[in-house]
Amino acid sequence: MAEQLKAIKGMNDILPPHSARWEWLEDTVRALMRRYGYQNVRVPIVEPTALFVRGLGEVTDIVEKEMYSFEDSLNGDKLTLRPEGTAGVVRAINEHSFLYEGGKRLYYIGPMFRHERPQKGRYRQFHQVGAEVLGFAGPDVDAETILMSAALWRDLGLAVGDDVRLEINSLGQPEERRAHREALITYLQSHEALLDDEARRRLHTNPLRILDTKNPALQAVVEGAPRLIDFLGEASLAHFDAVKQALDAAGIAYRVNPRLVRGMDYYNLTVFEWVTERLGSQGTVCGGGRYDGLIEQLGGKPAPAVGWGLGMERLLLLLEEVGKVPAPVVPDAFAVVLAGTPLPQVLATLEALRAQGVSVLLNPAGKDGPASPKSQFKKADASGARFALVFGPDEFSRGEVAIKPLRDGGEQRLAPLADVAGWGPGLRAAG
Fold it and tell me: What is the pLDDT of residues 224-268, one digit of tens each?
């Protein structure tokens, strides 16, 4: 026997019935995006490595440690499996001059890849929903993107405040961050003996990320560090205040977290995260913010932008934790075909039912003909179907099919095969 091949660690198969939960989540997301006027965008999984180095920041964890990068054996190009979605979307809108006619609202759903230690809710191949608003500079757009994510929680049955809570911050503009950076480095240098190896490595490359450390021993140092919000100018503060006022008006509770910085270098002004206490250390479910400089940074004409992304695996774990996953999808009816019944005519009847919107599952006949009635009824019951459609030779000769309720009691009845339009939709409505 040949050796059995298995999936790569951290890259998981999604099989029924769990795949139905993914479809439900994707359908919910698409319905939400339609309500807010977003259009779907699909960009390649493989991009030039330089896109992420330039876009995310050379000293970010993603670029330094986590990217799946390789050299194209045909032409020597340096390529990377996308670790996130925003950079690829910006590359696409630049390449196709997509903002020529004005701002856009775009969303995507798809796999991302990061080479890291797999753990629950955090995998090497993971799936992300992303929303990007390009070409609009006002704080109203920041607020609307946050409100749209809050609407998604409502659509999924999650409670804001109990299941997920909102944290926001402002990173200001580049010149304000530079002033804060200098003060932060000076402060951290005065406490260098208390820093761990990771913090020392970041001290002169990306000190802002030290504020996001999970090391309990550094919490006192971080709490005493200069706060970025104290370095913001009048315009940045006004932008942040306008976002908060919009959230207040909509009744969305939030906490200003001055240590919230996000993991990519491209953010400015508003940043936010939706976090949960129900998944242990993997608490961030959705995050995003404004990235006004990225379009120009990646070769396009200067234009503002804001967006967010959420990890689907982590969100599905949260939904399971709070009991909000949908019930398994089951057929409306199960066709039980008895020996001696002409199968072509049965198939034609089932197709007529499906054209009426009825989902029907057929137990295929084997090489020796249909399985025993007992076996078929057992499978009908296991399928979850509300009804069994019993095609027997006697009934069929009279132009009838027997409809047998499987769940809610009731008497078996006969229906005319010639009038599927009359009785077929009732199966779906009852289900």
Answer: 888 888 999 999 999 999 999 999 999 999 999 988 887 667 889
* C-beta neighbour count of 52 within 10 angstroms: 25
Question: pLDDT digits over 378-405, tens only?
Answer: 999 999 999 999 999 999 899 999 999 9
Residue 179 burial class via C-beta count within 10 angstroms: exposed 0-12, middle 13-18, buried 19 and up: middle
Ligand-binding annotation for 223, yes or no, is: no
The answer on whether 289 is annotated among ligand-binding residues is: no
According to the annotation, is 68 in a ligand binding site?
Answer: no
Q: What per-residue confidence (pLDDT) applies to 263?
A: 66
Query: What are the boundaries of each domain within the chain?
Result: 18-172+232-321, 174-229, 333-430
CATH architecture of 333-430: 3-Layer(aba) Sandwich (3.40)
CATH class, 18-172+232-321 region: alpha beta
290 is in an annotated binding site: no
Find out whether 181 is annotated in a ligand binding site.
no
Q: Is 61 left (phi over 0), alpha (psi -120 to 50) or beta?
A: alpha
